[in-house]
Amino acid sequence: MERLRLTGISTRAFVTEGDRKALDALERLPLLPKVVRKFYELGFDRWLYVHNLGRAVRLGPRQCPTLYNIHREACGVLDMPEPELYLSNNPFTNAFAGGVERPYIMLRSSIVDALTDEELYHLIGHELGHIKSGHILYFSVAQFLVPLLEAVGRRTMGLGDAAAIGLVMAFAEWSRQAEVSADRAGLLVAQSPETSIQANLKLCAGPNRLSHELSMNAFLDQARAYRDTDTIDSVAKMVWFYLMNWQASHPLFVHRAHELDRWVASGQYQRIMDGMYPRDQVA
Fold it and tell me: Cα(280)–Cα(148) distance, rounded to whole angstroms?
């Protein structure tokens, strides 16, 4: 299919209000500047880049051109420079973006097996959304948050250290909100709500020999049922979250499917496809 290129598109077109508010709350925490400064002083960004360079295959026109061409086209849709693209051997389905100074995307072999080419447009668009939105610095800091807090003289698990615990919680909340923004970017690249929901469904169910029997419509019904739970079930969801998932970096896939469905239903996605979206100023 021929994809519409969203020339000059600004991240304001797809970054959620929840993402912006969570980031604002995170950046107002007084401990954050010390942690970020330590991240650079200790060279963690360089370490991550070199480690990635040594454990995965860098893709390009002569190295797995199918994936590289999807990547290149996705960058064109979002009107952004191409980050480096890598493929690693890993049985756990995942992909991630990294590299503050030299951005890159890592695809695991299992996720390439699990998704169709069309669904990979959503996946790569999702990771590009993180890079374009400037999420990578804080994602990278969060990856080393515990040692960084120790480096600045803080404990993360001491009950008396409210500042450190608050920073961990703020990072987790912002990270979950950022995933919803990135899903929107994935949809803008896939340019098919059905494809994006199907990608989330496959990642939720995991690779299996009966994946051809998965139903996108049934999954959306499940997502709407999860949204529309009664008062007792809503309280249970909230209690379970604070007991078990307050440090989770990603929202539940069912929740993500609901958020994408709601964004499409609002008409905002179609307005972008019709060319009505905020654009970055060209210097």
Answer: 34
